[in-house]
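Q: Could you write out the predicted structure for this multi-component system? I'm mainly interested in how the pieces pack against one another.
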Amino acid sequence: MSDDPASLPSRAAIVGCGVIGAGWASRLHLRGVDISVSDPSPSAPEIFEEVTANAVAAWDALGVDTARRGSVTFAASLAEACEQAELVVESVPERLDIKHSTLAAIDAAAPEGAIIASSTSGFTPSELAEGVERAERLIVGHPFNPVYLLPLVEVVASPATTDEVIERAKAWYRGIGMHPLHVRREIPAHIADRFLEAVWREALWLVNDGVATTEEIDDAIRYGFGLRWAQMGLFETYRIAGGVGGMRHFIAQFGEALSWPWTKLMDTPELTEELIDTIADQSDAQSGHHSIRELERIRDRNLVGFLKVLEEHNWGAGQSMQALRDKAE
Amino acid sequence: MSDDPASLPSRAAIVGCGVIGAGWASRLHLRGVDISVSDPSPSAPEIFEEVTANAVAAWDALGVDTARRGSVTFAASLAEACEQAELVVESVPERLDIKHSTLAAIDAAAPEGAIIASSTSGFTPSELAEGVERAERLIVGHPFNPVYLLPLVEVVASPATTDEVIERAKAWYRGIGMHPLHVRREIPAHIADRFLEAVWREALWLVNDGVATTEEIDDAIRYGFGLRWAQMGLFETYRIAGGVGGMRHFIAQFGEALSWPWTKLMDTPELTEELIDTIADQSDAQSGHHSIRELERIRDRNLVGFLKVLEEHNWGAGQSMQALRDKAE
């Protein structure tokens, strides 16, 4: 996966500039790529400014040069944003009808050699490709918030996608300091969001049944296994737990737990108004003394610290940092 | 939860000295508590030495004083280990019959005022209490590996447990630099392991179906949401994602995904020999170039770095560090 060299697209279009689109925009333009932004919302420029300010603060704290920025244009239309782009990043709301109409418009407007990358967290590229004429250049490039700090991008191709497109996109992602994870098969929600959804479902049950509050659930994560998962995943962690017997010993010891009654709460709790109220009220009690902006700063400050630790040891997410320190090409 | 002051038990018995029991042993005796260890396995002293060496290295790297150690005795019997203990930590294998016979023996041997804390990850204290005469002093205190670095301990009481026992145990956990999370209700696997089990089940499906390898799954965690969860949990992270609309807006946007087909793989994959081989082989390919000891050192070095970052900002798991720097009483 690390064979092809990192590179940068000459120009990128950002279609949809909410928190995710603005995160892409900041990562690309702070890395020196010229970008054109298209979003009909009047708040898009403000979101772009806020997210970019966060990104600049975070990259400054990481000691990454933010002075070589590319140009930023807010285009009058989607077509105008796309017309000179080598990479078009689509981050419109997660509804298939909106995705379809947006991607068809991008396909019609983007130059022949351009790559179209959807930020969808749930849809497969084959689902998205309906109505896209040149589906060979459509991929999913699913990032994680905050996009300007977390290196993961899940890259998913449809059967129509060419290998050249996949490799070019992966090289670009590496060029902006990301870790492209090429997902072997199209499935709904790719890989990471399937885990997030499994945890979210279980967490809703725990709140619904009064077993734990939102704060207690968050503490159960961040004082324990969350610390482990910032640097090793599930399997490597369990490999250690298996001792010198490794994974085989671990599974022999703990695999049986899979058939225990822990798994009984697998249907989906109904999102009643009452449950939503409970969650919103508990979340206010837990975090309401910080504004969202403060929480963003706290989160980013912590992530910056973790990335520095990991870069110092050339491990995990820290290995993606070097690309940000390379001189732009 | 932080009202009662931190304190230390005068003497602790470690019943069961595998990786978890040895982790408890190292945390307690490095904090100055005298311990007696009981484990019939001939490898128990070696596991104790190895885990304690890791713990000393990690605490040294954190700048925590490790010179005030308590005494360590390997007792000839369970009864001998327990006879003067104020706290008995049970960490024998996760089988209910073994737990029952061990806890009954501890109950018979431990002084009247002693607290008995089981490290069980799955059983409820009510399940464990069958056969324990003085069930009012039995709790679950479920830690996370590596016990000498991760602060989380899930504290669970049965209806028989007295409040005094719960508060005394929580103060002791704080005294050894841990974060006691008092679980409101007894349910199988408490809180955190329900999440771990949900992710494990989904991960087995992804490997089983050839969607991802163990390494790809681990990367999907540690390059993305794993970094988030080391400092904020699920709900606080999503509160930020909801923007100024907070949790209510987030749920309105994404709650619907719960009923999407992402959730279809909720039954349990069969742990066939073939699947176990696949996982073990992929894990070897991913991590086999490091020994388990090396992986432990890498993990601990990264965790030490994270804890320093969080302590510097007095946030999350870093808030549990202060107790380790306090002078022992």
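A: Regarding packing and overall arrangement: Confidence is low (pLDDT under 50) at residues 261-265 of chain B.
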